[in-house]
Amino acid sequence: CFKDSEDEMKVNGIDINRFSARQLRYEIEHREVTSKSEWPAALETPVMKKSQKGFKSITVSVAVYGKGKEEVIRNRSNLLAIMYDELEVEIDGYTNHFKCVLDRITVKESIKRKCHEVILKFIGYEFGNEISTAMKNTTDSIEVEGNDSTPCIVEVTASANLASVELTGMAYNQVSGETESIIIKNLKAGKKVVINGEDCTVLQEGVNKFADTEMWEFPVLKPGKNMVSCSSDKCTVTMKYKPKYV
């Protein structure tokens, strides 16, 4: 029979216990890889190009219980009904979370018909808890956890009115990989400007400030050491990110 537990798989914060379900096992694959490398017949050496990373696959098997077949099907339906939008999945026994969508469903009925095994395949990416770090000087070295590039939320608060401030080491050209500058204009003393690399917005106290920003890319941090700088010592700069994993 079904028994509640304190810790279970969660989908967008909802414990699957609510649907008389229990996590059985899980499998996590690394991000899929595609490559446009080739070896033309006329060449003695191949043309090697950087591999492109795609989605990560997460497969979770859950048992759905009920007093009879009809109740099991209803509980299963209620469980699946919460899984058709963008999801944040927490797996019991695994520290990191997953931002993903449901890709495939497989159902296996038990002999006693009071339990169905539902195999859920998700595709998405893996991330850890948010980390916040503040620049100690106008130039600083930030050690970023994880092993994959991750969007960054940059918060800039000026202690005096400034015509502009330039940030470097927080954005990169998607083709060349070279670092690019972010310039914020018309900063007001005490008013925080938030450049959000996750939802691609620039706000000052909730008001759109994109028109006062010059940049080609939103903030991104790379795993390992990142050298970042701010052109003014009259700014407090804080970076927030969630470590990502291949």
Write the layout of secondary structure elements.
Layout: E1 10-11, E2 14-15, E3 21-28, E4 33-34, E5 52-53, E6 56-65, H1 69-80, E7 87-90, E8 97-109, E9 115-127, E10 131-134, E11 139-144, E12 150-158, E13 162-168, E14 182-187, E15 192-196, E16 201-204, E17 207-208, E18 213-214, E19 220-221, E20 224-230, E21 235-241, E22 244-245
Antiparallel strand pairs: 1-2, 1-7, 3-6, 4-5, 6-9, 7-8, 8-9, 9-22, 10-21, 11-20, 12-15, 12-19, 12-21, 13-14, 13-20, 14-18, 15-16, 16-17
Would you give an account of this structure?
- It is built from one helix and 22 strands.
- The protein has one helix at about 70-80, and strands at about 10, 15, 20-30, 35, 50-55, 55-65, 85-90, 95-110, 115-125, 130-135, 140-145, 150-160, 160-170, 180-185, 190-195, 200-205, 205-210, 215, 220, 225-230, 235-240, 245.
- It is globular, with a radius of gyration of 23 Å.
- The strands form four sheets. Strands 1, 2, 3, 6, 7, 8, 9 and 22 form an eight-stranded antiparallel β-sheet that branches. Strands 10, 12, 15, 16, 17, 19 and 21 form a seven-stranded antiparallel β-sheet that branches.
- Mean pLDDT is about 95; it is low at about 1-5.
- The protein is mostly beta strands.
Q: Which features would summarize this protein structure in a list?
A:
7-stranded antiparallel beta sheet; 8-stranded antiparallel beta sheet; 1 helix; 246 residues; disordered N terminus; mainly beta
